[in-house]
Write a structure and sequence with these properties.
Structural class: mainly alpha
CATH architecture: Up-down Bundle
CATH class: Mainly Alpha
Shape: globular
Number of helices: 20
Number of strands: 0
Strand content: under 5%
Helix content: over 70%
Largest sheet: none
Distance between the termini: 33 Å
Order of helices and strands: HHHHHHHHHHHHHHHHHHHH
Oligomer: single chain
CATH superfamily: MFS general substrate transporter like domains
Radius of gyration: 21 Å
């Protein structure tokens, strides 16, 4: 190649592959961090604050159920978002959908921070919360599939698991930031916290939204999408095509995801209300334990993805399923232990151990179940349908099961164990994921 040819080649492809991978990885991590911060800050506020300021007419447990009800609305909107964004993600492109979901996630978060309380506008406050959660649910329904596919489809062979774990790690990062924000305002006097303190973490989303938009603009479109488009492999109705031709893939991914998402929201959301109301643990202590568990998961989730590249992602996910079946009976005992150290151990094992084994490898594992022309629709529909059931109902089912057990979490532990066994069966029926 002559010097002129070399210059021409560099001009045609100015971004070195390693730099392109790094940009995509960072964008995936930061983008999902911001969107999940928005989603989690609501869940934390629902567990600690919303029952007092939006549903004060109810007793504490009923008020908590009502607050978690508004929280669940966002999950039930996810499958709709999966259908809509999956369709356009397979037809128009991954990148444009990710930019749109970012705006749809951040704007309602800021607006929630402005909603008047029950004392000022009555149940209209709850109506506004529900509407905002609907928009957020639609956004998250399209976010997961796009973020994971951008990371996996850009990644080099042999590293797809690691890169696919980066947007997954963004979930832990978002949980850390939202928990830090709520822990900071939780130190305020209680009345100050209820008056305006809880609103500050929601307003902070303005800055995060700006950063996320700037970073996602720099990411190129998915190469797998571009190839499918160039070859004319796109289908007219991707979601219908998936439902008709990929039933097994939908069911196995949904079955595996159901345990993972239920485990996460039981640990990260329900345990806050359980610890404060049933065990009388200070909210600051349980929030700090969640922060440390999620911070450790920031490291262990990519490690689980990396280990999956060197063994099998199905194997790593299966270990997480076994972890649920065992630790579901230990977790709540540790929460009720005699000292704060047992609470920290519970969160570290639950989030940085069990959850990381499930969540780290699933980006590439789930993506590999569907062909590129319908991959956005396939992974989004399977993941978000199970997410609506597992995540949306997890806090309410957990609250009901503990109430049925007269304050004991034994029924809840068995429920989690059964879901772990279903996930283990589901992952055993999946096709081998790509290296």
């Amino acid at each position: 190649m002559t010097p002129i040819d070399s210059v021409t080649a560099r001009a045609a492809n100015p971004t070195h592959p390693s730099r392109r991978y790094a940009i995509v990885g960072i964008a995936s991590l930061i983008g999902t961090t911001i969107e999940w911060y928005d989603f989690f800050v609501y869940g934390t506020a629902a567990a600690l604050v919303f029952n007092k300021i939006f549903f004060p007419a109810f007793d504490p447990i009923t008020g908590t159920l009502a607050a978690f009800g508004t929280y669940a609305v966002g999950f039930f909107a996810r499958p709709i978002g999966a259908i809509v964004f999956g369709h356009f993600g397979d037809k128009v492109g991954r990148k444009s959908m990710l930019l749109l979901t970012l705006i749809m996630m951040g704007t309602p978060t800021v607006l929630i921070g402005l909603v008047p309380t029950y004392e000022k506008i009555g149940y209209w406050a709850a109506v506004i919360l529900v509407l905002m959660r609907l928009v957020q649910g639609l956004a998250i329904g399209g976010e997961y599939g796009g973020a994971v596919l951008m990371a996996v489809e850009h990644a080099p062979k042999g590293k797809k698991g690691f890169f696919g774990s980066l947007p997954q790690a963004g979930v832990a990062f978002g949980l850390v930031l939202s928990s830090l924000a709520m822990a900071a305002v939780a130190k305020l006097p209680q009345q100050t916290m209820l008056d305006w303190g809880w609103r500050v973490p929601f307003w902070a989303s303005i800055a995060l939204l700006s950063v996320g938009w700037f970073i996602r603009l720099k990411v190129a479109e998915s190469p797998d999408f571009e190839k499918a488009k160039k070859r004319g492999e796109q289908v007219n109705a991707p979601v219908l095509h998936v439902v008709k031709h990929h039933k097994r893939e939908l069911l196995t991914v949904a079955g595996a995801r159901l345990a993972e998402v239920t485990w996460f929201y039981t640990v990260a959301t329900f345990s806050l209300s359980y610890a404060t109301q049933h065990l009388h643990i200070a909210s600051s202590l349980i929030l700090n334990a969640v922060i440390w568990g999620a911070a450790a998961a920031l490291i262990t989730i990519p490690i689980a993805g990396w280990l999956g590249d060197r063994s099998q992602h199905r194997f790593m996910f299966g270990l997480g399923c076994v972890g649920i079946c065992i630790f579901a009976f230990v977790f709540f005992g540790l929460l009720g232990g005699s000292g704060s150290s047992s609470i920290y151990i519970a969160m570290l094992v639950a989030l940085a151990g069990v959850y990381a084994l499930l969540y780290g490898p699933e980006g590439n594992l789930f993506s590999a179940q569907f062909p590129a022309p319908v991959r956005y629709s396939g992974i989004s529909l399977a993941v978000q349908t199970s997410g609506a059931i597992g995540g949306g109902l997890a806090p309410m089912i957990a609250t009901w099961l503990v109430k049925a057990g007269n304050g004991s979490p034994i029924y809840l532990s068995w429920y989690l164990c059964v879901l772990g066994l279903i996930a283990l069966l589901s992952v055993s029926l999946m096709r081998k994921d790509e290296a």
